Amino acid sequence: MNSQKLGTVALAALLVSAFKVGQSMGKALSDGFQVLPDGLTLIQNSDELKSIAKEARPALAELKDLDADEATAVADQVCAELGIENDGTVIGKAGKVLKLAARTYRLEEEALDLVHDWKEVFA
After folding, report:
1. 1 part of a folded domain
2. What are phi and psi of 72, to 5 degrees?
3. Hey, how many other C-beta atoms are within 10 angstroms of the C-beta on 28?
4. Residue 65 half-sphere exposure, CB side, CA atoms within 13 Å?
5. Can you spell out the DSSP letters for 58-99?
C-alpha cells in the first residue's frame, strides 16, 4: 500500500476510475442481480477494482485532509472527466464510492478463494 500522498491530480484520477466502475456496476444492477451478465460486468471491472482498492485507504485519508480549494479542484476535475455537472456532492460521494470499490474487490477475491477451495477438495 502506498504511504505517500497521491496529490490532487492523482486523487481525482482515482476517483474518476472509481465513479466509472460505480456507474458500470450500477447500470448492470439496475434491473436486479442476474448472475451471468452482472458477473461479467464484475469481471470486466476487476483490474480497475484491484487498482482502486490498492489506493483506497490513502485516498480516503487524503480526502479528509483536503482544504476547500483542493476539494473544489478535485471535484471540478472529476466532474469534467465524467461529463457531469458539479452539484457539490462529488466529494461527499467519493468516500462511499472508494469504500464500495474496495469492498467489491475484497468480495470478488473471497469468492475466487472459495472456488479454488471447493475445487481443491473435490477436483
Report:
1. no
2. -65, -45
3. 18
4. 11
5. HHHHHHHH--HHHHHHHHHHHHHHHT----S-HHHHHHHHHH
For residue 29, what is the enclosing H or E element?
helix 8-29
Q: Judge whether 80 lies within some domain.
A: yes
Q: How many residues does the chain have?
A: 123
Full residue range of the structural domain in which residue 36 is found = 8-122
For residue 30, the model assigns a pLDDT of 94
Burial 36-45 (b: 16+ CB within 10 A, else e): eeeeebbeeb
Burial of 116 (0-12, 13-18, 19+ CB in 10 A): exposed
* Residue 117 within a domain: yes
pTM for this model (two decimals): 0.86
Q: Cell numbers of 101, please?
A: 470499490
Report the number of distinct structural domains present in the chain: 1
User: What would the 3-class secondary structure string for 103-122 be?
Assistant: HHHHHHHHHHHHHHHHHHHH
Q: Yes or no: say if 47 and 105 are a contact pair by the CB < 8 Å rule.
A: no
Q: Would you say residue 2 has pLDDT above 80?
A: no
